[in-house]
Amino acid sequence: MNTQLQAIYEEYNRYIYHLCLKLTRNTTEAEDLMQEVWVKVVRYEESMQNVEHIKAWLTTICMNTFRDRYRKTMRRSKYVAFQPETLEVPILDLVPNQEISTEDQVEKDMIRSVVQEKMKQLDGIYQKTLWYFYIEQYSLIEISNVMKVSIGTVKSRLFRAKARLKEMLMADHVAAEAILPA
């Protein structure tokens, strides 16, 4: 390690460790994360010459490394179940099923019908805006072209429509109970 890297390490080592500890809330993971950060710093040593604020550069590397590790963990946990020492269930039972259960489907259909019923009670312009955005999945530009209004108008209509729909759903206690988690 050259003298410049050594000086940076000595100056910012504690800062990076505390940042890693704050992010992970676990000393072992913080040490692992910190090691990955310093490996990246060494790997990209030549780009350090163009950096004006070393602390900000190190913070960015640390945050990005943490995000990458988090995303990687989330992707793995989606497909791999944490298994005990001895496996007492068939391995296929651990593979996630992409099909929705009957209970979830019934609940989803009930929520959809409640929301659609409340949407029908909205003013026509708000109803159309929500329909285009959420059902047809038009972009804001496409909605503005179809409705012949500015994008700002579409944004404000969408905001007002969502606020009004939420207000209507919350006012109806039966609908609120169906939509809000218990």
Automatic annotation (TrEMBL):
Choose any GO biological process term that the UniProt entry carries and state it. DNA-templated transcription initiation
Stored Pfam families: Sigma70_r2, Sigma70_r4_2
CDD domains under this entry? Sigma70_r4
Its keywords, alphabetically, are: Sigma factor, Transcription, Transcription regulation
- What molecular function terms (GO) are annotated for this protein? DNA binding; sigma factor activity
The residue ranges of the RNA polymerase sigma factor 70 region 4 type domain are: 115-165
Judging by the UniProt lineage, the source's domain of life is Bacteria
Q: Where is the RNA polymerase sigma-70 region domain?
A: 8-75
Q: Which family, according to the similarity comment?
A: Belongs to the sigma-70 factor family. ECF subfamily.
Q: What is this protein called?
A: RNA polymerase sigma factor
Which organism was this protein described from? Lysinibacillus alkalisoli
